[in-house]
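=== RUN LOG ===
request id: a7f3
mode: sequence -> structure
chains: 1
length: 233
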Amino acid sequence: MSGVMTLEIIILAAIAGFLFLRLRDVLGRRTGHENPSDYFGHAGSTQNGQDKNSETVIPFPGAEQADPTIRHADIAAVTDLDGSIGQTLVAAKAHETDFDAQRFIEGAKAAYEMILMGFESGDKSTLRPLLNDDVYSSFAGVIDERAENDLSVDARFVGLRSTKIEDARLNEAEKILHMDVRFDAEMIVAVRNSEGEVVDGDPTVVRRMNDLWTFERKLGDSNPGWLLIETGE
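=== RESULT ===
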């Protein structure tokens, strides 16, 4: 009986040794001088029948200089790179290399909500740094008129449905960039008199907003802020 067990142990040991040698041949032995590609996949390796490089592509240094879609990916993400708006924004980058169209859109969204809510709540201190003199004067005039007539506003910003750059203009000589942005949004607004009665709007109805605002900034300026210089529909 012990002879049979000994034979089984010898056979199992032989099989284990064979598997070890096969695994070493397949996986290789680490020497301390391995190429990182040995562990992250070679250029032609596949996984589940798909080329790994189709999922993750690391361009060679300098490739972004040759391919505008890489160099200006932020612009291509918000508008047609070959269109008039795209080409204007490409020209803007010549004056301010870290200009980012996607970051501008996100900032414009935040500014839109902040300005609307600041206007409805009568918060001049919030509005002042975001508006040029003409727009601020117009907004402040309405706020003062409401106060004189003992009117208050109940407002709630529901959200933005879409935001789109409709036009862009660059003054090359003065390095001033104008951006026209279309906002499609929803708000609830109700104006009340001193007795609390609703005299305009409706606190239960969502109002659709469709505004075209123009922002301005001098490229290369140390102040990163944009100013709202015009409002319209």
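=== NOTES ===
The radius of gyration is 32 Å.
Residues 19-55 have pLDDT under 50 and may be disordered.
=== END ===
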